[in-house]
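Note to self: keep these together.
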Amino acid sequence: MEIFTQIAPLKAFLQDLKCRGQSVGLVPTMGALHAGHISLIKASKSANNITVGSIFVNPVQFNNETDLEKYPRTLDKDMKLLQSVGCNVLFSPPNAEMYPIKATVSMDFGVLDKVMEGKFRPGHFSGVALVVSKLFNIIQPDHAYFGQKDWQQFAIIKKLTEELNFSITLHSVETLRESDGLALSSRNLRLDEKQRVTANIFYKSLVKAKTALLEGKPLKEVKGMVASMVQSVQNVRLEYFELADSKNLNLLENVEQSSQPIMCIAGYVGDIRLIDNMFLD
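Structure:
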């Protein structure tokens, strides 16, 4: 596995490969890798000659300084894991390489970044879009791979790709889960033993809500049920539960308003924020 921390050598390396007709897949991450990330690497390897994994904890997408400081960083372990599954290239730049001057560019995605995550984390998706734009420009992949767990992020990156005319095919890869349903997440590393046991309440709530909605229960009633389920667990707090159109993220009042609705949930276990989602189909 080739390892790069600087942009110029990486671009030169990849340009040589592209001149020889090699296709490139990109898996952008913030590290603390788990099996979900590895599923993205494998998806890329199955369709591309070269797979680039990036590890960069992007400071401009955090609107909580404490959250940025506590975000797990396991670079040595991550490098070994990527190498073990045949990742061809790792790009792991320092902050000064990605942001040699203070970032001032901001992006607006209309309704896409005003609801759910965007409502509770203002500026987050502008920071995500900025770093993804940088990675797309630096690496110029043919394909890029993202996890379904961050569906709102995927919808925004899709919009970014369309509006900025990136010639990149995007792929959303199904969320991987623990045996009790907890969605794999780098933030799970911060859960202590007791928190880990209770963290799957968000998945349990989605399962119950899906059944209720498909049975025709009103959304208001289902929202109340989810809130009660989450609030019944000690040291767990619900931030939001919403039903949205998966294509445009418009919030829905009932299942019939969309051909492809998705349920999205976010909340805290202690001070650790977790998100999850589930399609109704």
